[in-house]
Amino acid sequence: MEGRKPSDPQPPPDTLPDPSSPPRAGGLPDRETLRRFVTEATGRVGKREIARAFSLGPEHKAALRDMLRELALDGALVPAGARRFRASAAMPEATVVQITGTDPDGDPIARPVMWEGDGPAPVIFMHPEQKGRPALTPGERVVARLKRVGPGRYEGRTLRRLTDAPGRVVGLFRATPADPAAAPRRAQEAGRIVPADRRSKAEWIVPAGETLGAEPDEIVVAEPLPMAGHGLKPARIVERLGPMGDARSVSLLAIHTHAIPNQFPADALAEAERARGVSAEGREDLRDVPLITIDGADARDFDDAVYAEPWSGPEGIGFRLIVAIADVAHYVRPGSTLDSEARRRGNSVYFPDRVVPMLPEALSNGWCSLRPGEDRGCLFVEIHIDAEGRKLRHRFGRGLMRSAARLTYDEVQAIADGAQDSALPEGMMATLFDAWRALSTARAQRGTLELDVPERVVRLDETGRITAIEPRIRHDSHRLIEDFMVLANVAAAEELERRRLPCLYRIHAPPSPERAEAMRDNLSAMGFAVPPVGTLHARDLAGVLARAAEGDAPTLVSETILRAQSQAEYSPDNIGHFGLALSSYAHFTSPIRRYADLMVHRALIGMGTHPPDAMPAADAAKLEEIGQQVSTAERRAILAERETTERYVAAWLTDQVGTEFTGHVSGVTRFGVFVTLTQTGASGLVPVSTLPDDVWTHDDKTHTLRGRDSGLVLRLGQPVTVRLAEATPVTGGLLFTLTDPPPVPARRARGQRPR
């Protein structure tokens, strides 16, 4: 079924209040009147609606823009898409929040458990727990006192944890040496647990008889015991995960730390084992179309296949594309045990030595995997684009396909470069790349934000020993698949909008006003002009990155822009995708590993109970809740994967303590600066206590740490040389010292205020 063309009329704007209600004096309203007008509107409001309501002319344009900007910076209004605003809802002074992840500095991020306001729930940046208290972990709920610090942003302090202690303790067991002269209480101590969470500073005592036979330097899971007096809290070891020296224990540590479900219920496994192939009835036969899958060399589940051919029609010449996706909805039915378990997991989690899948292997690597030469059910989208990569029309359907080949990114790139022969039909690979170049042209004209953040790959041998840690190589073949998938995702969102069906969008809000303003100030100081808050587009930042690539500070510019970005998430409330510069976007292409994609598949199939794999009305009514749930699971997976890589890197660098490395400042905090190494991409802290003697002041707005007396400055992106002082594999923590600190001025005379 065809989707809406770019030239088709847009849906009518949201309903606004009666324009006769505000005063119509033909002049600019005051701040309170303008705020009240936006508050009373039932939808998002832009400058056009405000100008019409208050009879404003072109001469008021600049003043209105400045007033909207001030209201956004004060938190009275919240940006809601390009050039549109909505009123921000106030949170109570104290409320129950749930921890969803951590910020770049490692501090917890939370969301309110109950949120009835318009738009996405606000983000709450929690203060670290008091010394001696366990750190807040994802999924934990606390009563927090809130203080608004900007639109949709709050600071929170824990008033009361809804559980007296965390349900589990994961860390490294260290045996206590026997000492006949020790105090009685110390003599009853068999060992201690060093928490794996680097934010948890306090160790746990393991009483005698509660070790479960754990060996020294073994990763363990423990449960808290009742306190008996003051001091460190006791815990009983309930599971042994393996020695810290075993690289395969590292992923188990992350799985248990973040409570990632890794065992399927028996009923879910039985449902998966009963799965069988689909019939051709009611499906379009695509088995003669040479669709191919392109994935990493170590991939085992293939859920997307692509095809392209030249095309000409009334609109001109271009390409006909087909993107076929595994029909997971056929096997994972609403209300089944498989469905509830997939929703609980939210997504697959990928570690260097294992995958924790969203679906059992019988499906993820079996009937839902588009294996070459085997018949598989699919949902497909046929898309026509012109020579400039603009989408002309699309059509969705359910099909029966047979993959012609399973290729890796390296193989596809080698074929494209002429370094390897292809068994595909003649010219097919060249056509795929020609179509991708057309899509690249459209992407460049749209102005997407492409932050080239290096990804590290941990290489392990068959015994689990680390053999290398290196940047992941990105070919044009990677970009080809990415652009094909983005196009299919856009078509899915537009199709659901056209059919007025519920959609779980993939949204990415613009930078918050205060972050955008700080970014604008920093980029301006570097000589890059950025539009004011409220008029910022991804293409503006893409232009800055392009110009920075030709200069001598591309890393600093990239880090500055990256720091300002908000997190992408899933929501039925569409505010567009800022980074991709798209007004409508939904994840459709990976239902094997993302529950959000499965929800989009069900919506495309239909609503109600016929067919039985369509989206139930009950799920459509709680899409916001499902969106929050899968967004939290995604953040949990990202955090677990990142921490695991950090632990592998720390283990890899343990033997290199004292070695010098080059890097750049990638984070600035009140307690020091984070440095990212050039060679491995590893990040570690240079504590402020190791910096030259001075009074150091942290400026959050400019991301700098400045010495008061010396005037020396450490700033984001600054190249530095550091020496590795400490590597702690259990937490993944690295500590550095600067080896090339700036010269220190003469010591202060007596009587001057000391540091």
Summarize the structure in words.
- With 755 residues, the protein is α+β, with helices and mostly antiparallel strands.
- The protein folds into 6 domains: 31-87, no CATH class; 94-162, Beta Barrel (OB fold (Dihydrolipoamide Acetyltransferase, E2P)), CATH 2.40.50.140; 169-243; 266-506 and 583-642, no CATH class; 510-565; 657-740, OB fold (Dihydrolipoamide Acetyltransferase, E2P), CATH 2.40.50.140.
- The longest helix is centred in the last third of the chain and has 31 residues, at 623-653.
- It is globular and about 90 Å long.
DSSP, total strands: 34
Q: Note the overall shape.
A: globular
Strand content: 25-35%
List the strand order in the largest sheet.
4-5-6-8-7
- Ranges with pLDDT <50 over ≥5 residues? 1-25, 744-755
User: Major β-sheet, in short?
Assistant: 5 strands, mixed, barrel
Helical fraction: 25-40%
How far the N terminus sits from the C terminus, by CA atoms, comes to 71 Å
EC number: 3.1.13.1
Pfam families: CSD2 (PF17876), RNB (PF00773), S1 (PF00575)
Family: Belongs to the RNR ribonuclease family. RNase R subfamily.
Catalytic activity: Exonucleolytic cleavage in the 3'- to 5'-direction to yield nucleoside 5'-phosphates
